[in-house]
Amino acid sequence: MRILAIRGKNLASLAEPFEISFCSGPLAPVGLFAITGQTGAGKSTILDALCLALYDKIPRLPDGHGIAVGHKDEDENLRVATTDVRSILRKGTSNGFAEVDFVGKDKQQYRARWEVTKARGKVDGRLQSQEVKLTNITTGQIIGQGKKKYA
Fold first, then answer.
1. How do residues 87-119 score in pLDDT, each as one tens digit?
2. Strand, coil or helix: 36
3. What does R_g of the chain's alpha carbons equal in angstroms?
4. pTM surpassing 0.70?
């Protein structure tokens, strides 16, 4: 697999939409690069976006049931566990996504997308289940949509 681009919005410390292209610009001709920056700048979040889009997982999250996070005055149903991948949604936002374009073993280009929203698009809405989708970029054909377990 060769990564072509990573995109996202409202993930942890990265509020604005972002895109990192490995096909154009300064990263196109290089084979090795470093992700550097200040604490809280979003270095790990870029890697989280990659893992979310491809695998619906964030490796740095702890295992187990986790602890519900939220304000003490907040409705318990609005809280999310520390182990839940949806906890990456930036506070004060109603939606976010992670997207990765890549070339598969079959030399076809694909787009993997992970997205989460809150009910009615409201910041104080209940967090909805994340949606995942895999699309062939060239044909536009949706290869997979939704979370499915394959044997």
1. 899 989 999 999 999 999 999 999 999 999 999
2. coil
3. 16
4. yes
